[in-house]
Design goal:
mainly beta, outer membrane lipoprotein receptor (LolB), chain A, 13-stranded antiparallel β-sheet
Length: about 240
């Protein structure tokens, strides 16, 4: 943490204002090894689907290790649920969808899933802003007085996101012109954007309670995920699962 603090004065000005707001006190003793979030919301399986499905999820994060595990139950119909898992651990992304014992989709360790999962971790770091402190893995590059580019490198995977800051200092949105996603059973890089709102202080950090993300198709932003954080607590270190 001392190294991160030493870099503070060289941060882009909107990032410095944001971190002062999000983490007003940052001694190493207060950095949680892991955090556990409960979420609920709605999602849809593609930008062309008109059906939004309710979900509930548990989101576990190790902010300084650049790792997360998201597990969700998605309601298809009464008493019928999909199990969805998305994670990034030890430099490897995993995505899996199951209906009971039947595996409907799975990918692990491909360059596309690694990049897509790390992009997710970086975007959602507004919920655990310790991960946005400068480090050997995380670099900030100035754009202007309300935007900065964050670049995160884990192993062989590197991703970047443009963070867009509100006048009050908080992150309003993030954007990349090319995130890997699966469309019609094939991976493509497509512009991707996330919005955040309803900030409050939890576990010593100023974080949003609401987020929504989607893919850009031309000038249209097609949201595919909307969710609220219903609880946030300091958790135990990840198991070996």
């Amino acid at each position: 943490m001392n190294g991160a603090q030493n870099f503070r004065d060289r941060l882009p000005s909107p990032v410095r204002r944001y971190l002062d707001l999000a983490l007003p006190e940052r001694p190493s003793a207060q950095v949680p090894a892991s955090l556990v979030f409960s979420q609920n919301g709605t999602l849809r399986t593609s930008t062309s689907s008109s059906r939004w499905l309710p979900f509930s999820a548990t989101h576990e994060v190790r902010p300084l290790a650049n790792e997360f595990s998201w597990t969700a139950s998605v309601r298809l119909a009464p008493f019928i649920h999909l199990s969805v898992r998305d994670s990034f651990r030890l430099g490897q992304g995993v995505g899996e969808v199951r209906l009971g014992w039947l595996r409907l989709g799975h990918d692990a360790g491909s360059p596309q899933i690694n990049s897509g999962s790390l992009h997710r971790f970086l975007a959602e770091a507004v919920f655990y802003p310790w991960a946005l402190l400068p480090s050997s893995a995380l670099k900030w590059t100035p754009i202007d007085e309300s935007r900065a580019l964050a670049t995160l490198t884990v192993g062989a995977t590197e991703v970047s996101l443009e963070f867009r800051f509100e006048p009050g200092g908080q992150v309003g949105s993030v954007y990349t012109p090319a995130r890997w996603g699966r469309f019609d059973r094939a991976y493509r890089q497509v512009p991707w954007q996330g919005h955040f709102a309803e900030y409050s202080r939890r576990c010593g950090a100023f974080v949003p309670s609401y987020g929504e993300v989607g893919w850009r198709e031309g000038e249209t932003l097609e949201f595919v995920w909307r969710g609220h954080v219903t609880s946030m607590r300091v958790g135990e270190p990840f198991s070996s699962r």
